[in-house]
Amino acid sequence: MEVPILYFDDNGEQVFQTDVLRHIFLKIGSRPFVVLSVNGIHRTGKSFLLTKLLQQLLLIQGTLHVESDVCSPIKVKWTDDDSSDISPVGIGIWSEPITLKRKNNQEISIILMHTTGSYDPPATIQQNSTVFALSTIISSFFVFNVRKTISKDTLELMQYFLNLANSFNGLDESKRLCLPQTSQRILFLIRDMELRLKDFAHGYHTPTSKPHSTAHSQGNLFAQIFSIDPTRQPLEMQHTYRQVLSSFQQYGLFALPESSSLRATNRNRELDLEFQNYTQTLMDLLISTEIGLIYNETKQVNGVEISGNEFVAVIDQLEKIFKRSSHFQMIERTMESRAEMQNIISKSNLLSLYVSTISDFMSEQSRKTGNPGMYQKTLAEKMNSFLKICLDTFSRRLSQGDDDLKEKYREALSEEIQQKMKLFEFLNESKIKYARQTLGLKTEAETLIGELTKLNTQLSQSEASDDERLYETSHLEREMEQRLKKAHSIHLRKRIEELQGKLIKLQEQIYQNQTENENNIVQLLRIIQNISNIQTA
Fold first, then answer.
1. What gap in Å lies between CA 163 and CA 239, rounded to an integer?
2. Which residues pair with 35 in a beta bridge?
3. Which residues, in sequence order, are CB contacts of 41 under 8 Å at separation 6+?
């Protein structure tokens, strides 16, 4: 059965049931696992997809036997159902992990996760943000349901939520654990897709491939939707596409045709053949033992596959973060108007664009000049000019809400960008400071190396014997000269050892300085990004 792991009480307070989550992952034990999360707009067929997945996973596992009713052999009460008693906004999870085998006979566990109420008018931005962030962090395979098409508004909303989800790593104070940022793979599932079949085919599309049955004249739907064209697309749209896709390691889309039963008054009417065939193709793509994508999407942290027992430590960290995080508490808990939501999302995404653009500019300048920092005047000119672009874009894009509402969020955008401008200036000053310190240390090291080279030369000359000259001197003179040479060599060796020790310490200081510089820069950039995410909330 489905059990809730996240829901909101009557006062709108979030309830994160970590004990339930721990119990499920402890059942998995030492096995690697896949968490397949189904997300998307309310009532777009998430329950139907989950039921089909559960049915076929149980068939593969061997715990379900079907004889006659092939279409719906099991009845499952998911949260979207009218009869469900689980919170209408939140995250549910199937209580029993399903155990399958990879081709190499290694056992893995599959967990189905169900997000509910997302993007539905009763759900606030705070609730949607929490649901989306937690589901992307826990899951390894993220299915995102949309109907008809993937709109620009949908991607902007997703970008906003992904920014918040990715900022959780900045809230992890543990030095022993790095939280997973987002799911490893995303599949956009476009339901009831009305395609011009002469242009595109139903089925699975990736950035580099299209359905096998596609005619030569038919194009790649994924490439068509997510193509970036700087000549005709606004900068903020290009940024949205890049940021959404860069949040995942793998991505693709599946175009599912409309079912005639969805247009019928009787919802129990048998599914039409085309829809049923493509639904089965989707199931094969996801979970078949031969080509199923899930077998390669076991959960990872820092690129390393982890077990259910190991993931319990991640749950512990998430519990601490949720208890003390102010990310979502600052968002009003009443229902936001659509105009308010549009303003919040636009402000968030333009803040993200600003941070990304200035960061790229600083990196490009360093690459061109070979210097880590730049003139503050050059940086200020770029930041001020792009501030104006962002504010103009904000004013131009918004079409909802009265003038006071627009001006309120425009001023907030300006203030928050100016705060980040100060951080970028500090970041640039830090780069210059550490570069000067490192240059001074390197110059001192080069001086030491030069002195060591000279001393080594003197030592070699001192220890070299001039046989012809020594042959002409008396035994006593030879003995005295050899003693003097020995004393001089001992003095030189001591001096060389002293300088070598000093050089080693200097080189360690240079390394420590560079490491500290790099860590500080990374931390500053993370602070800038996290402040952006927190302020947008």
1. 12
2. 111
3. 118, 119, 120, 145, 146, 147, 154
For residue range 81-106, list pLDDT tens digits in order: 444 444 467 888 998 999 998 888 88
Q: Side chain identity at 16, as an amino acid letter?
A: F
**What is the three-class DSSP state of 15?**
strand
Q: What is the pLDDT of residues 134-161, one digit of tens each?
A: 888 899 999 998 888 888 888 888 888 8
C-alpha radius of gyration, the chain, whole number: 32
* Other residues' Cβ atoms within 10 Å of the Cβ of residue 470: 12
Q: 10 Å Cβ neighbour count for 495? A: 15
Query: DSSP strand E in 133-244: where?
Result: 141-147, 185-191, 203-205
Amino acid at 352: S
Q: Are 353 and 203 in contact (CB under 8 A)?
A: no
Pairing of strands 90-94, 98-101: unpaired
How far is residue 78 CA from its own chain's centroid? 29
Closest to 373 (Cα-Cα) out of 437, 441, 443, 440: 437
Reported residue count of the chain is 537
pTM over 0.85: no
Task: Say which residues have a Cβ less than 8 Å from residue 285's Cβ, sequence separation at least 6.
Answer: 204, 254, 291, 292, 293
Q: Other CB atoms closer than 10 Å to residue 252's CB: what's the count? A: 19
